[in-house]
Sequence to fold (473 residues):
Amino acid sequence: MSKMDLGVVGLGVMGRNIVLNFESRGYGVVAYARRPEVVAEFVNGAAKGKKIMGTSDYAEMCANLASPRAVMLMVTAGEAVDAAIESLLPLLAPGDIIIDGGNSHFPDTIRRTKYVESKGLLFVGTGVSGGEEGALKGPSIMPGGSKAAWERIKPMFQAIAAKVADGSPCCQYVGPDGAGHYVKMVHNGIEYGDMQLICEAYWLMKTVLGLSAPEQHEVFKRWNEGELDSYLIDITQQILAKTDPETGKPMVDVILDTAGQKGTGKWTSASALDMGTPAPTIAEAVFARCLSAVKEERVAASKVLSGPNETFTGDKQAFIDDIQQALYASKICSYAQGFQLMRYAAKEYHWDLNFGDIALMWRGGCIIRARFLERIKEAFAADPNCVNLLLTPFFKGIIDKAQPAWRRVLSAAVMHGVPVPAFSSALSYYDAYRSEHLPANMLQAQRDFFGAHTYERVDKPRGQFFHYQWLDE
Fold:
């Protein structure tokens, strides 16, 4: 057998599908799994008759790869990645490439890049988004790490990546060390916000308007044909059309209202806090999942704590239209926060991020793919130094149009006692960002009063700090 183009470590669902994707594009793959029975099941099943070799031996895998060798890790983030790297290093030569395709935390990728490069090898940390289907048919791929590795893997990665209408691949080099995994982390943070916003729109229509799942299916289906066209809106309308075979009820109504998380939304929020960058909608989406998880406490509290008992008496269709506008405006704010965060990270970690390319990579294959990402790409093409998407003409116009509906939805939610933390935080972010003055002057006075933390003055140049003697001697 001739030498193969790539090794893939890990034959979980994502790993298997990535292997099959590479092979379908003409690349020979050595597929590795620690357990021989897993390898045998794969090569005798989905991989049978294809240019795929299976092994449970790292040395055999490396010996069958064309030079310079490239090995992609599709294993659980954390210790498993470090263990795989240690196993591979003695078997690879200078110039060979190790690729981490999992959801690793970007500081780990920064560390691993330095470590692997110190051994004379190259390291790539790449985000891969699109779930099982994307891995098989074309994901969004966000590679970072050793720039020298990019020319070697570029043809392979762009071949398997999702393509948009003009044929452009949703895969470009992002930047050094942890840049690729950072961008994927922010993608996931925006995904958290997007999903929570959709859930709040669904919940308002269910609890305030009393719309059934089939009725909401029609609403989301219609929304997906317009400006809200996106993968998440599409799967939402599909979910709302499904029926539980056991009870005959809408499938969504038999699913327990507790949500989990894998950590990427929390990482995004923590990074924003570390750099002092506002990302409240993403953070509220994480906290909403945390609140959902305390189901037993909420059940007990519901029997003790009271709220309003309002009945909706307005025009249902008008309110549905308002929710659509509120969802669109809030979604824009969530993306604006994500891109603002990446701008701060680029400065902090000395990455030359191309935000137009990032928007391009998210236009297809990934979970947050949406029609309006083309507009984000256009915004950064027009002004690569754009500090916030809210300031660009297209998005400013959308927000201006949506504001009255957005505020009506928030008012109705408050009056009906319906929690909408993501909608609320998005509007508060917008209102704060557009405000020349905020009450932080009082906050600084308080800090100076109890801790002599000093303050700046409105009538003095920035950078000069003062302390006031608040207590009489």
About this structure: The longest strand covers residues 122-129. The beta strands are 6-9, 29-32, 52-55, 70-73, 97-100, 122-129, 140-145.
